[in-house]
Every structure is written in structure tokens, then in C-alpha cells.
Specification:
single chain; mainly alpha; Proton glutamate symport protein; 21 helices; globular; binds aspartic acid; transmembrane helix; transport; membrane; symporter activity; transmembrane
Length: 441
């Protein structure tokens, strides 16, 4: 019998997880049961993915750069990547702002709902912790992000997943220096990283064997801890605008893929689907990164010389879904709380949401932290910030899941575009976890 394709297996796991989670909400002990006995398996899976993220970035970026044999090629790739990332993010924010201005989801929301949401969430630790985190990030100077990108201790950078940009910096520095000492002298180090890279990609294959079960656990956990369905319903119009915007972004990527790379967009989406489904289940582009890299390189055929730079950088700085959401959420909150927005305010949102998406961490809920900064940039009253966040908190997790799918798809799209533009989009070479199993079993 032909084995069911991975994305179908994952999808079935997700649906069963949602169903199971829903059943568990019907019994009093259900939430605890899921928390104690089911969720840990999801957490272990996410930990495994994060475990290999740093070795993978290091090995693949060093291999990618040392394969280039030419620093100017790397400069080309770098400049294109950053420019395209900025462009797609601006497109995303613009789509979000146009939709929220046309559909006005904040206008119809009743005083009663606002009061209920405020009472439930304004002093919730979820909201207050996001505001605290935002005020910590806000105190930084304009060049702080550059300063933060440079590690003062390579090993320390490698021990902290939130320092991914520092690891990228170190890997690029090392890779370029390897090119500069000449092929012969760099050979032993290159072989080491080549081999490490293959090993880590094999680890991705092995981890993915458990993906259908892990997403079951992750989604059951999300369902049992989701908010009161009545509150979710009150925010349906706002959530609908965000989801519509995100769907338009997927359409936009499909158009780019077919026009720039002449690749069938449906094939692109189907090859990326395991990564997208994991992005949805984990709400973290950083955790999904190893799978995104594996899909883009082995299943789509983007050369490592491009993907090893474009994807890790994208996971940390390119968040189209997040910035679209920040645009919609900021205007929605302003509409609901009758805070008038001028055109200049909306342009400020474009700029700050762009910077905020660069600054957002690739972890669940990070987009909401930076939303505080977007709201402050348009002069939103400080004393109403908690109320504003309380308004959207109930639906933040499901929207986070959806925007992470867009974040990951955006990175993959740009990887294809850059690869095509430098002649590095080739034939896929799929490797299976058991290619050498017979030799060692
Ligand atoms: N969870 C998102 C990501 O990891 C970030 C966010 O929008 O909160 O891409």
C-alpha cells in the first residue's frame, strides 16, 4: 500500500488533535489531562526542532558561503534578499491597512463587548507581560539592533536560540574568512561543516517521523486552553479581516512564484505544506526553520548557497504575516476605542510595523509585543494600551498560528526568487531518513 504523504498525515493528526481537545473541554478533568499527559509530547517535539536550529544554521551557512567560491556572489544574494524582504513586508502591511479601512471591523463592536473583554483580559498576565516586554525593547537606541547582531562570545551566542542573528553573523564571518584562506587550507573545515550539515538534515527527517503525533498533542493543547467561545465570536469580524489579508498574501506569493520563477504555485504550496502545517501548529517560525530549510532545499531545489542565508535571516527578520496583523490590529483597536487616525498615522503604522516585524522574535505571541510599539508610535494613549491589547487577546493565538504560516511561506517564496535571480534554482533532490538504513541496521 502506498504510504500516505507526510502533509496528509500531519493534517489528520491536527484534525484529530482539535477533535480530541474539543472532547476534553466537555469533561471537568479534560484540561488537566491534556496538560499532564498529551501536551508534553508536543513540547518535546518543539524542543527537538529548536535543538537542531543552531547547528543547522551554522553548518549550512558556512557550507553555503564556502561553496560560493566568490564573495561578490554573496553580496549579491544579501542585497537582493534584504530588498525583497522589505518590499514583501510593505505589501503585506498595505494589504492589511486597506482591508481594515474598508471593512471597519472595529466600528460595530459594542460597548458591552469592550467592557467584557477589558474585564477579562486587561490585567491578565498574558497582556501585562507583553506590555512589560515592549517597554524593555522600547528603551533601546536606533542602532541597538546592529549592536545586538554582533556577538562578543561565539559560544555564548550558540547557547541561546534567541540570539540567532548573532549565530548568523558569526557563520557569515567564518564562511567569508574560509574563502579568503584559499580552497586548500579551508578544506578540512569545509568537510567538517558539510558533513555536520548532512547529519543535521537527517535529524530533521527523523524528527519529522513523529510530526503527525506531535501536532495532535500541540493542537489538543491549544483547544483546551482557548478562550470563551462567546468572546471569540465577538471578534469574528476582526479575525476575519486578518485571515482574509493573510490569504491574500498567500495568493500574492503564488503569483510571485509563478511569474518570477515559472514554478507551478500549487506544487510550491504542496511541497511547502509540511512546513506550513508545522508553523500553524507551533506558532513559531524559529521552531519551523529546520523543516522550512529541508523543504526548500531538498523538495523545491533551491541551492544551499541561497537558502542557507535567506531562510534563517528571513525567520528572524521577515514576518509579513506579523506585520499585516499589526497593521490591522492597530487600526481595529483605534476604531473600537474611537481614536481617530489620520493618513499620517497610517503611514507611521507602515513604517513602524515594518521595523516591528524585523524586531519581533520568531516565537509565539511576539507580534503582539511589537504591536504595543506600533500603537505608541501613533500617539495612542498610554492608559488605554492595556484595554487595546485586551480587545484582541482572545483571538491572538489562532491568529498567531495563521500569521506564522504566512511568515514561513514568505521566507520560502523569497528564497525561490533570489535563487532564480542568481541561477541557483535547480532540481529537487529528496533524501529520505532511511536511505542508508539497510547498511547500518
Ligand atoms: N509567532 C510568529 C512567528 O514565529 C511571530 C508573531 O507574529 O507573533 O513567526
Amino acid at each position: 500500500m502506498r504510504k500516505l504523504e507526510l502533509h496528509w498525515q500531519i493534517l489528520i493528526g491536527m484534525l484529530l488533535g482539535i477533535l480530541f481537545g474539543f472532547l476534553m473541554t466537555q469533561v471537568t478533568w479534560g484540561k488537566d489531562f491534556v496538560g499532564d499527559w498529551i501536551q508534553p509530547f508536543g513540547t518535546i517535539f518543539v524542543k527537538l526542532l529548536k535543538l537542531i536550529a543552531i547547528p543547522l544554521i551554522l553548518a549550512s551557512l558556512i557550507k553555503g558561503i564556502s561553496d560560493l567560491k566568490d564573495i561578490s556572489k554573496f553580496r549579491n544574494i544579501g542585497v537582493r534578499t534584504i530588498l525583497i524582504y522589505i518590499t514583501t513586508t510593505v505589501v503585506a502591511i498595505t494589504i492589511g491597512l486597506v482591508l481594515v479601512n474598508i471593512m471597519q471591523p472595529g466600528e460595530g463592536i459594542s460597548e458591552e463587548t469592550i467592557t467584557k473583554l477589558t474585564d477579562t483580559y486587561a490585567s491578565d498576565s498574558g497582556v501585562t507581560s507583553k506590555m512589560e516586554e515592549a517597554s524593555r525593547q522600547k528603551g533601546a537606541g536606533p542602532l541597538k539592533f546592529l549592536e545586538d547582531m554582533v556577538p562578543d562570545n561565539a559560544l555564548a551566542a550558540m547557547t541561546d536560540n534567541s540570539l540567532m542573528l548573532q549565530v548568523i553573523f558569526f557563520a557569515i564571518f567564518l564562511g567569508i574568512s574560509m574563502l579568503l584562506i584559499g580552497e586548500k587550507d579551508a578544506e578540512p573545515l569545509k568537510k567538517f561543516f558539510d558533513s555536520l550539515n548532512d547529519v543535521v538534515l537527517k535529524m530533521v527527517d527523523l524528527i519529522m517521523l513523529t510530526a503527525p503525533y506531535a501536532v495532535f498533542a500541540l493542537l489538543a493543547g491549544v483547544v483546551v486552553s482557548s478562550s470563551d467561545p462567546e468572546l471569540l465570536l465577538a471578534l469574528l469580524k476582526y479575525a476575519g479581516v486578518v485571515v482574509l489579508g493573510l490569504a491574500l498574501m498567500i495568493l500574492f506569493y503564488s503569483l510571485i512564484v509563478s511569474s518570477f520563477t515559472r514554478y507551478n504555485p500549487l506544487t510550491f504550496l504542496s511541497k511547502m505544506s509540511p512546513a506550513q502545517l508545522l508553523a500553524f501548529s507551533t506558532s513559531s517560525s524559529a521552531a519551523t526553520l529546520p523543516v522550512t530549510m529541508e523543504r526548500v532545499e531538498e523538495h523545491i531545489g533551491v541551492d544551499k548557497e541561497v537558502s542557507s542565508f535567506v531562510l534563517p535571516v528571513g525567520a528572524t527578520i521577515n514576518m509579513d504575516g506579523t506585520s499585516l496583523y499589526q497593521g490591522v490590529a492597530a487600526v481595529f483597536i483605534a476604531q473600537a476605542l474611537a481614536f481617530d487616525l489620520t493618513l499620517a498615522n497610517q503611514l507611521t503604522i507602515v513604517l513602524t510595523a515594518l521595523l516591528a516585524s524585523i524586531g519581533s522574535a520568531a516565537v509565539p505571541g511576539a507580534g503582539m509585543v511589537m504591536l504595543v510599539i506600533v500603537l505608541e508610535s501613533i500617539g495612542f494613549p498610554q492608559d488605554k494600551l492595556a484595554i487595546g491589547l485586551a480587545l484582541i487577546f482572545a483571538v491572538d493565538r489562532p491568529l498567531d498560528m495563521c500569521r506564522t504560516v504566512v511568515n514561513v511561506t514568505g521566507d520560502a517564496t523569497v528564497a525561490m526568487m533570489v535563487a532564480k535571480s542568481v541561477g541557483k534554482l535547480g532540481k529537487p533532490k529528496v533524501k529520505n531518513w532511511d536511505d542508508h538504513y539497510e547498511e547500518v541496521k
